[in-house]
Amino acid sequence: MLVDLPLDQLRDYRPEVPEPDDFDDFWAATLAQARSTPTAATSEPADTPVTAPRVEDVTFPGFGGEPVRAWFVAPPVPGPLPCVVELIGYGGGRGLPHERLGWAAAGYASLVMDTRGQASTWGSGGGTPDPHGSGPAHPGVMTRGIESPQTYYYRRLVTDAVRAVDHVLTRPDVDPDRVAAVGTSQGGGLALATGALHGRVAAVVADVPFLCHLERAVSITDAAPYSEVASYLAVHRGAAEQVFRTLSYVDGVVMARRICAPTMISVALMDDVCPPSTVFAAANAIPVPPTVEVYPFNGHEGGGQEQWLRSVRWLGEVLA
Fold first, then answer.
1. Cα-based angle 13, 248, 221 (whole degrees, multiple of 5)
2. Mean pLDDT over residues 242-268, rounded?
3. What whole-number distance in Å separates Cα of residue 178 and Cα of residue 259?
4. How many domains does the chain have?
């Protein structure tokens, strides 16, 4: 069933979502610290039977210079190529190379970033730990380190995503003027953040994005992973103000206000995981109105493979 406001109201939904006064300084300092580490990226041929596209097993420095795994997949054509930095949904990881061939088949290089400390809920796994402790937290990562924006898990994951773009910009086989950040659900939220925080991102595709309008999301859906925050607050009854302050540093609405690149966002009106009002709140906050694809009768699967086709065509036009 429809889980949120009617579509005509969603298209005009522009809530007052507060942002921290030090938001820009916080992220500037975080990224400067990550970029100051001397750790170098490594790359070697992947152990896979896939031979038509070129597949490399990449390790690049993420938050704090910590190693983040990725697949780099490129079609067997001369470069430099347009490149997609692909960011993964909640609980998943980079998987196996043969699962990540779509963008190469469409003529793009892609860097598929592993997800630190996740990759064990669905899919084929990953290999990037999150070597940071945490205070008391609900199972999952939504409340890991939520006592402070400095210790919050998503500070590290967003930084990894920005550093993934840094990595592809150093590659001679990538056209630095045609790099896109793309993802679904958590990956969509990370794509919005990457587009906001990295000035060289040329396009953003965020499908049914997570991490948007977080205070509303926690209050109107009991689906995981937003329910992790509600469960945490049910125990830590006096922590709501600090929790939502921490979340405001990664909120997709606050990030969206800073996106300058062309953006496509998809939304599903029966999505109880990432409610449509939270997605439209982010879409409507982008200074240059994005392309919004609406799927009236879908849940969190969104547009599925149909949306992938639309995003490939859209990126072809934008990056041309």
1. 60
2. 98
3. 16
4. 1
